[in-house]
Structures are given as C-alpha cells and as structure tokens.
Amino acid sequence: MRRVFPKAAGLAAVGLLAFATAQPSQASTLSHQPGRSAAESAAYFVMTDITREEFVVKLTKPGDIEHARELVNGQTTDRPHLAARIIKRTTPYNPRWSYHTNPDTTEFFDQHLEVCDATIPYVEDNVDEAGGPFLPGLYWCDWTSRLIREVPAP
C-alpha cells in the first residue's frame, strides 16, 4: 500500500506537468494560424432612424453581416431594425457619438419591447442615465432604425 500511493502521486504529477506545458504551445499554434482576424471580418453599416441622424454600427457575426447586406441591397425586408447593448464611449468608426453598439450583442428584429426603444440623439442626450431605468442593461432597440448603406472599414 505504501508503494501504490507514491506511484499514483508521481503519475498524477507527470500528467499535470504534461498538461500544463502543452497548453501554451497549443495556444501559440492557434494564434498563429492563417485566417481572418476579428477586425478583418467586421463590416460597418450606417444606420438611421426617424430623426434622420446617422450612426455607424460594426457587425462581426457572419449571419448579421449577411442579413445587413440583404437589407441594404433590398433583398429582404424581414427584421429591418437593429438592437444591441451600448458601450458608453466613443469609437474611431463612430466619433460623433459618445456611445457605440457592442457587435457581439447585435440582433435584428421586427418588433421589440418598448423599454429599449430610443432614437439615436435621445440616447446621446441621456447616455449618462443609460443602464438604469433608461435602457436597462444598456440594451437599445430603436424601433425606427434601419440600415441605409455599408461603409468601408476605418
């Protein structure tokens, strides 16, 4: 019995060491694989609403990009409005506004809850209050939003 425990502990230690040393090499291999980076796979679209103000949104999910292009090209009218969580800071591709949308949370819709509805300038005028009773969870769904064109990456 005294010999079984040291052998088992030794095997466990060797296995743990092999696992710990394998992960960095696997991670470095993954990061150097050819392919498109997140910035290269992003697409940018101009959104407007009832106020006729323009707001640039960044899309990164292939399905969102495809749907946005179909909307802009007139190939579909399904789910024409955009919803996403906002991030309260400027971004280089949308410098006019003190907020932008998180592309990981973007979705398109036909109808949505009223609590997240606000126009582009209204969000700007009240961005400090966003996340509380105004736009709970920083979730924004402009009911009159529509994409009007794709723009080149900045």
Q: Summary?
A:
By secondary structure, the chain is α+β, with helices and mostly antiparallel strands.
Structure keywords:
2 domains; 3 helices; 29% helix; single chain; 154 residues; 3-stranded antiparallel sheet; alpha+beta; 9 strands; 4-stranded antiparallel sheet
Folded structure, characterized:
Helices cover 29% and strands 25% of the residues. With 154 residues, it is an alpha+beta fold. The protein folds into 2 domains: 1-34; 43-151, no CATH class. The strands form 3 sheets. Strands 3, 4, 5 and 8 form a 4-stranded antiparallel beta sheet that branches. The radius of gyration is 23 Å and the shape is globular. Residues 4-38 have low confidence and may be disordered.
Radius of gyration: 23 Å
Assess the beta-strand content as a share of residues: 15-25%
SSE pattern = HEEHEEEHEEEE
Number of helices: 3
Report the average pLDDT across residues. 81
Please bin the fraction of helical residues: 25-40%
Give the termini distance in whole angstroms: 68 Å
Secondary-structure-based class equals alpha+beta
What sort of overall outline do the alpha carbons produce when their principal axes are compared? globular
Counting DSSP E segments of at least 2 residues, the number of strands comes to 9
Count of spatially separate domains? 2
Q: Give unreliable regions as ranges.
A: 4-38
- Main beta sheet: strand number and arrangement? 4 strands, antiparallel
